[in-house]
Design a protein that fits this description.
By secondary structure, the chain is α+β, with helices and mostly antiparallel strands. Helix content is 35%, strand content 28%. It has a domain at 6-73 and 101-182 and 273-358: FAD/NAD(P)-binding domain (3-Layer(bba) Sandwich), CATH 3.50.50.60. The longest helix is centred in the C-terminal third of the chain and has 28 residues, at 327-354.
Length: 403
């Protein structure tokens, strides 16, 4: 493909937000171009999220991008919480009036969207790094980008930055327009992938006196497991045996099963961050997904928020195309931020309920256990957690408000 120089919607970044938005625009006949700084293999192999909310699955279905997800994805009707060596299962359909989540790795979702895009369009340029977004005050914002050793310019009617936390689009907004609200966390997640069948059918979130652990999976043969570790932990300092022993110790219940062990194929430490940039749009430039907000992964919300932003924006552009009205585009930031802050609250709540802080006192631990106990004894408390985890519908006002 040559170098595109003109489009209606210029999209920076081919993660879940950019790819889904491009697909939705393509289906409504709106011309767009995606620029992605990495190569295709890198984008398709990047290990990240694995839980899709019902509304994300519904959006992929209506975008014609769910064939493989239907065959290979696994619906999960609940999660298990472990604390004080006990186990509590939350059943989503009965607590939420029928909602559930799906296990389908972000790598697979990204591969599906790229495969569709390569077959049907719109244009996607890999190894095309956006250098700057300019001209926000006029009618024709533009993206300056580098590809194959040369600089090019893509003139757009609208620009959408789906370029993640370190992206450049945000910097195209005039100074003083954006405000970022942030919170750091005093611990990280040490994540491993292992060629070992998962020992459990659903995700297990464990509170223990040794710190948090999460047992998840990527397929019937691959386990994905996480341990809370101090910030700055070097994964190479952890032998495989130490990792498995620590996971078993943190996930232990009275009489419970142990994990199936197998070769560990990947070890990485992921710092945790909470951040929201407001507003998510200014003039003709929009931000979507991680470019505008980051949540700690404990609530499994990052990928789903990115997909929700793409849905809201896809609908707003379709409305513009059908009616000529920018009403929904104008409402985009407010609409998304309601959902974003709900997800931030939920993700921070899950994080603080399950992790031990470095200065954790016995009093703090008692408070956490009381909160977990409340989930076991109050259907209302359990329903509130389940509604937030399974995800709020991306409905008419798309923000969903609170649950
Ligand atoms: C290491 C890691 C692990 C995670 N694990 C989980 C998890 O377990 N559960 C969970 O729910 N969430 C997880 N997340 C969060 C989730 O994966 C993200 O929220 C999701 O990827 C957001 O999608 P996005 O499209 O907004 O951004 P991204 O997926 O980050 O995509 C942004 C894209 O923009 C491209 N880009 C950046 N700058 C430029 C530029 N200048 N020009 C062109 N392209 C550019 C990038 O290469 C990238 O492809 C994790 C995130 C990370 C970073």
């Amino acid at each position: 493909m040559g170098h595109p120089t003109r489009t209606r919607v210029g999209i920076v970044g081919a993660g879940p937000a950019g790819l889904l938005l491009a697909r939705l625009l393509h289906l409504t006949g709106i011309d767009c171009v995606i620029l992605e700084r990495r190569d295709r293999t890198y984008v398709e192999r990047r290990q990240r999220a694995g839980i899709l909310e019902q509304s994300t699955v519904d959006a992929l279905r209506s975008a014609g991008a769910a064939d493989r997800l239907e065959r290979e994805g696994t619906p999960h009707d609940g999660v298990e919480l472990r604390f004080a060596r006990r186990s509590l299962r939350l059943d989503f359909p009965s607590l939420t009036g029928g909602r559930r989540v799906w296990l389908y790795a972000q790598t697979e979702l990204v591969k599906d969207l790229i495969a569709l895009q390569q077959k049907e369009g719109p244009p996607l340029l890999f190894e095309a790094r956006a250098l700057a977004v300019e001209g926000n005050d006029g009618d024709r914002p533009l993206i300056r980008y580098a590809h194959a050793g040369r600089e090019h310019t893509l003139v757009c009617d609208w620009v959408v930055g789906c370029d993640g936390y370190h992206g450049v689009t945000r910097h195209g907004m005039p100074e003083g327009v954006l405000r970022t609200y942030e919170r750091g966390h005093p611990y990280s997640w040490f994540g491993i992938l292992a060629d070992a069948p998962p020992a459990y059918e659903e995700l297990i979130y464990a509170h223990s006196e040794r710190g948090f652990a999460l047992a998840s999976m990527r397929s019937a043969h691959v386990s994905r497991l996480y341990l809370q570790v101090p910030n700055g932990t070097d994964p190479e300092q952890w032998s495989d045996e130490r990792v498995w022993n620590e996971l078993d110790a943190r996930l232990a219940t009275r009489g419970g099963r142990r994990l199936h062990r197998g070769p560990i194929t990947s070890k990485a430490v992921l710092p945790m961050r909470s951040s929201v940039t407001e507003p998510m749009a200014h003039g003709r430039i929009f931000l979507a997904g991680d470019a505008a907000h980051i949540v700690p992964p404990t609530g499994a919300k990052g990928l789903n928020l990115a997909a929700a932003d793409a849905m809201v924006l896809g609908r707003a552009f379709a409305h513009l195309g059908a009616t000529g009205s920018t009403e929904l585009l104008d409402a985009y930031s407010d609409t998304c931020l309601r959902r974003v802050w709900r997800a931030e609250h939920f993700s921070n709540l899950m994080t603080s309920m399950l992790h031990l802080s470095p200065d954790q006192s016995e009093f703090d631990t008692r408070l956490q256990l009381s909160q977990l106990e409340r989930l076991a004894t109050s259907p209302h408390a359990a329903a509130e957690l389940a509604a937030n985890y399974a995800g709020l519908p991306v409905g008419g006002d798309a923000g969903g408000g609170g649950a």
